[in-house]
Amino acid sequence: MSPLKTAEQPRPHSLMELFSSFTFLALQGFGGVLAVIQQELVERKRWMTAEEFVENWAVAQIMPGPNVVNMALMVGGRYFGLRGALTAMAGMLTVPLILILLLGLLYSHYASDPQVLGALRGMGAVAAGLIIASGFKLFAALKNNPLGIPVCMAFGFACFFCVALMHWPLAYVLGGLGSLACVQTYRKIKP
């Protein structure tokens, strides 16, 4: 992937800025990083538009591996090629890996403490709320989608129904609904 060259859109100026930005992003993302990465890349740094973020996040979700690492690889590759992709990935993984290993050691000693269990449950609820809030923020990006908001919402509800209520495997649901959405989008934009 070749580096992006646009004059009007802000971009990282160095590999160090890319590394430190993704390290900072990763350190904020305990329990759910969608809200954090969207706010950082779209609203704060403006390295991407909301539409670009939604498109890239969709690709990151269907690629194997953690969504946020996939996104880091795409953003790094977009601006600095392979070196940028590897730098962004290192930023996402290095410091958080060290912290997780240290927290794992602490958790092994305090896992049965009721206060620790309560704190973890509370963090889960906060992470769910952040993900829902991000979904609402990104909803406006659907106005430019060729399928339109009603069809996109129908796909979202169908995915929720299949995964959350029917307990079907996410890979099958994304493969089926994603393929159907791609075919419908192709039909809409086909000349």
Describe it.
By secondary structure, the chain is mainly alpha-helical. It has a domain of 111 residues. Helix content is 75%, strand content 0%. The protein contains 7 helices and no strands. Helix 1 crosses helix 4, helix 2 packs across helix 5 and helix 3 crosses helix 4. The chain starts with 14 loop residues before the first helix and ends with a helix. 21% of the residues are buried.
Keywords:
191 residues; mainly alpha; 7 helices; 75% helix
**Average pLDDT score:** 86
Strand content: under 5%
Count of DSSP helices?
7
Largest sheet: none
Briefly summarize what is shown.
The chain is an all-alpha fold and 191 residues long. It has helices at 15-28, 34-44, 50-62, 67-110, 114-138, 149-165, 170-189.
SSE topology sketch:
Blueprint: H1 15-28, H2 34-44, H3 50-62, H4 67-110, H5 114-138, H6 149-165, H7 170-189
Helix pairs in contact: 1-4, 2-5, 3-4, 6-7
